[in-house]
């Protein structure tokens, strides 16, 4: 098999949440346990950090990986979904999984897959666990795919667990209240393993506290300990002062992740580093500073408040639920734009009307449809937008919508591309 044949096999033979949605979600860990048992349980051969949450888990995972790399650890990073290439999901010290490894892995384990019938995600998790073991990483940062309790990644016993924040997303699978969603995410809290919650939220505090007490896990609410004050901001970096228990802890800390929402992720990252320090990791202040100043370079993170062009200013962001869109709108507003040309697409299993109701009526909209089965048909999206008073033009592809926005935007206006991870994934210059 060549690389393309392997990808075709994975995408076509196995259900895949990224493309088809809820039908690919397996409510059991039996398959991933069977796969890893057959592979000798590779996930037990190195230390891990487990990261869950509604928003911010990807950014937090990359920040932790960058800091660990700078501290001298050979660091695995498993995240999903990918934007451009499947191999982005599995990295070591920022370098993507080699295509040949994927080919060999699928050829070797095809009989096992046909016996177990795993989902796309289960297979991918097993791949990451095996690759990290084969390459003898020191530590791997493992991002949950969906939820936590029944997520395929939830067979690891990590050094630390981190849950970023809880918001409304994937309600059909995870629950209709913040408490229900939190209970699913809390499933990654393991007996005796310290757990950090980035953001203390009134609706979810009791859920996490109860789970931690049940399994006797030390629990930290990072926002109780750490606070972040923005000192300066540019399109390339933001500079913050970090306070720990009210005392200045990190003065002039630079972040190359420039979304203002990173202020909610940073406390959880720093609290998790504290946990690792208590578990005999060696991480200096300089490693923290270097890692956070160069996260994108060190880990290859894309699509988080990413500037694609300066004239007109063109930005993309993968934020796609109510909390994520609210943060994006706040940051767009802070730029005081003359006009925003918003390229917007969505998937069909999201409550898109609630998001459309948040969007400003005075933006120019370019509605589009990503090239995946889950995409909300652009005609339907346009109708829903019209009902809430948004005016725009429909395009059959992301590329056509972006092209039209570029043709219409004046040099001193802003183009924003988002609404779905899969819209961002189709940006040519990403």
From TrEMBL:
UniProt-listed InterPro entries: Folylpolyglutamate_synth (IPR001645), Folylpolyglutamate_synth_CS (IPR018109), Mur-like_cat_sf (IPR036565), Mur_ligase_C (IPR004101), Mur_ligase_C_dom_sf (IPR036615), Mur_ligase_cen (IPR013221)
Record GO biological process: folic acid biosynthetic process
Annotated metabolic or biological route of this protein: Cofactor biosynthesis; tetrahydrofolylpolyglutamate biosynthesis; Cofactor biosynthesis; tetrahydrofolate biosynthesis; 7,8-dihydrofolate from 2-amino-4-hydroxy-6-hydroxymethyl-7,8-dihydropteridine diphosphate and 4-aminobenzoate: step 2/2
Cofactors demanded by this protein: Mg(2+)
EC category name: ligase
Domain Mur ligase C-terminal: 303-420
E.C. designation(s): 6.3.2.12, 6.3.2.17
Similarity section: Belongs to the folylpolyglutamate synthase family.
NCBIfam families registered for this protein in UniProt: folC
Name of the protein: Dihydrofolate synthase/folylpolyglutamate synthase
């Amino acid at each position: 098999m060549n690389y393309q044949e392997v990808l075709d096999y994975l995408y076509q033979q196995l259900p895949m949440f990224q493309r088809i949605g809820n039908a690919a979600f397996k409510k059991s860990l039996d398959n991933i346990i069977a796969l890893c048992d057959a592979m000798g349980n590779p996930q037990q051969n190195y230390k891990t950090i487990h990261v869950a949450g509604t928003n911010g888990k990807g950014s937090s995972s990359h920040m932790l990986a960058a800091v660990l790399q700078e501290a001298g650890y050979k660091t695995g990073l498993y995240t999903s979904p990918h934007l451009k290439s499947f191999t982005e999901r599995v990295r070591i010290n920022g370098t993507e999984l080699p295509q040949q490894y994927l080919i060999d892995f699928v050829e070797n384990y095809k009989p096992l897959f046909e016996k177990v019938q795993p989902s796309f995600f289960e297979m991918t998790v097993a791949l990451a666990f095996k690759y990290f073991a084969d390459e003898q990483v020191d530590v791997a940062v493992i991002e949950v795919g969906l939820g936590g309790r029944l997520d395929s990644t939830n067979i690891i016993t990590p050094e630390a667990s981190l849950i970023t924040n809880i918001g409304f997303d994937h309600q059909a699978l995870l629950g209709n209240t913040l408490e229900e969603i939190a209970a699913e995410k809390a499933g990654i809290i393991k007996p005796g393993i310290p757990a950090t919650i980035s953001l203390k939220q009134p609706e979810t505090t009791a859920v996490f506290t109860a789970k931690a007490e049940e399994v006797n896990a030390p629990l930290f609410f990072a926002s109780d300990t750490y606070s972040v004050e923005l000192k300066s901001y540019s399109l390339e970096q933001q500079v913050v002062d970090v306070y720990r228990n009210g005392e200045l802890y990190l003065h002039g800390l630079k972040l190359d992740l420039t979304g203002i929402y990173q202020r909610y992720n940073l406390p959880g990252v720093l609290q998790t580093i504290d946990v690792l320090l208590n578990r005999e990791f060696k991480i200096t202040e300089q490693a923290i500073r270097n890692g956070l100043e160069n996260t994108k370079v060190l880990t290859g993170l894309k699509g988080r408040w990413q500037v694609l062009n300066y004239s007109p200013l063109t930005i993309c962001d993968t934020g796609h639920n109510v909390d994520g869109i609210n943060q994006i709108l706040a940051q767009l507003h802070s730029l005081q734009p003359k006009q925003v040309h918003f390229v917007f697409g969505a998937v069909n299993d999201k409550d898109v009307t609630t998001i459309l109701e948040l969007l400003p009526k005075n933006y120019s909209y370019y509605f589009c449809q990503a090239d995946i089965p889950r995409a909300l048909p652009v005609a339907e999206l346009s109708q829903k937008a019209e009902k809430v008073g948004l005016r725009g033009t429909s395009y059959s592809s992301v590329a056509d919508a972006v092209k039209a926005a570029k043709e219409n935007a004046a040099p001193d206006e802003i183009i924003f591309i988002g609404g779905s991870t899969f819209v961002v994934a189709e940006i040519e210059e990403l």
